[in-house]
Amino acid sequence: MADIINLLPENVANQIAAGEVVQRPSSVIKELLENSIDAGATKIDIIIEKGGKKNIKVIDNGMGMSVKDSKMAFERHATSKIKNADELFSIQTNGFRGEALSSICAVSQVELISKTDSFDFGTKLNLEANKLKKEKTIVAPNGTSISIKNLFFNIPARRNFLKSDSVELKYIVNEFYRIAISYPNVSFKFTNNSSEIFNLPSSNLRKRIVSIFGQKIDEKLVPVEEKTNIVEIYGFILKPDFSKKTKGNQFFYVNNRYIKSSFLHHSVSSSYDGLIKENYKPGYFLFFKVKPETIDINIHPTKTEIKFDNEQILYSILKSCIKHSLGMFNISPTIDFTNNNNLYNPNYNKKDLRNLNVDIEVDSGFNPFKTNDTKLKNNIENSNHFVEYESKPIQDLTQTIFEIDKLKSSIKLFQFMNKYIISSVKSGIIIIHQNRAHQRVLYERFLKNITQSKVQIQKLSFPIAINLSSEMRMIYIKYEEEIKASGFLINKQKKESLEIVGIPIYCKEENVEELLEDILESIQAKIFNKNFSQSDILAKILAKKLAIKTNFPLKIEEQEKLLDDLFACKEILLSPFEKKIFFNLSLKEVEKKFNL
Ligand code: ADP
Ligand code: MG
After folding, report:
1. CB of 304 closer than 8 Å to CB of 259
2. 333 occurs within a structural domain
3. For a surface tag, which of 36, 122, 174, 527 has the fewest beta carbons within 10 Å of its beta carbon?
4. In this structure, is residue 347 part of a structural domain?
């Protein structure tokens, strides 16, 4: 047989290698920002066009590169950060593989301008698919400006695989958060399609978190601090009642490097046990300092996973320190620390605090039909269908007889486990999932109201200002029309806040902020689903948020009303989320159970 093995042409080899480092525009941002930080930058400007697909530009005031280094930087395995294998174990920088720039350049058009303090002039290079196209000596400020244009211009298949501009931007912003949080002393400016979305001055960790996520997060932050000889932990966790069903606000850093770790996440979540609803995720910004030789950061090429030598111990230390912080901050309103003898007891051990009953009311839920529960009472529009059912004195015969009659007429319905409504029908019985049934009812109603702009609005006597994080602001801008159509009268949008002057009648003034935030967050979580119209997504979110939950006792009249409404819907079999609403148990099936 003839020889069949060839060496791949260099450009193909480069493209293959690039695949590992550069998955999408957000990978480019990560590498460029890390390089700027490694170069000692204190001020970084990021300019994005078209979700990073057209251009990603990062300008820093770091140490810059000499003419020779500027060119060298694009060679594979060219790095100034390590010189030999021993240094691998004591890396202090973000990069060290010398792969990023060569990989990025293999699949894009690059313009680099760099100047060091020791030269009067800077260098400007233009490269394309690793080939130097132009070189110039120019006047430039100290530092580096690098622009990555038309990512994957030479690999159409990869370019087509990229998502919409807004989704790619979201990935970029997430990457940006990770870095901006771990370098609060560096100031960042972030411009997307010519509009500035972040301008973060140099500050401390707490202020940095607040300037990214909005003023409101400030009161949610609970400090965490622990020093042992294995690990030093610091940062913030979010109070349990601010945990979210959707992911987000979960940041772990080891030696200031962002990592993902399911076992550390588990340790934090289990510390919140009993304090948050099932499936809810606590938020955290936690930093771990460990000896570099006790971790292996090389197990994943993009370096977000990490292997610790002492996983078990770390797990326990973290858990105990989170519990301690939760205890400290949540019992404080109910226990007067000044009168707490524990604190004056020389044998006092902070661990004791963990055994105290933590008095937090989370997962309180609400009953839609309780008279004093305004939220859902309003939610069930025109609640005249719901007859308040009170016990009457026995002498009031006519009334009693009337009520018995009424009961008799509805005896066919029965609520089971506060979750299902069972009704007998001609052919057998049907078992209805109350939450899904109500979601269907509300969904159809909201969809109609939103598309026809028919929502009844109540004007507020005093406008409510709602602060939004930059990310939420972006979502709001995108969905503004539908949000307004769903009954929110929004006067003007200031830089950081919305001024609400009217709210839909299904919403209560005190809940408006929570509801709007929930809407925006749910939209954010669903942003990837492009198959539905924006009105549809909004109607679904509202229905899900406001529907009667399971574990709610419903009175007979309420059960009746729900079924009436359900059977008046266009679709009765499936919830808006395609879940089965009810099923039928036929007489035949029942008899089979009795072997009849
Ligand atoms: P690594 O960061 O792993 O060393 P890169 O390919 O990301 O590899 O960068 C190669 C080299 O280019 C770096 O080691 C550094 O010397 C230089 N470099 C890259 N970006 C910058 C920058 N913004 N400022 C100064 N030097 C830089
Ligand atoms: Mg690098």
Report:
1. yes
2. no
3. 174
4. no
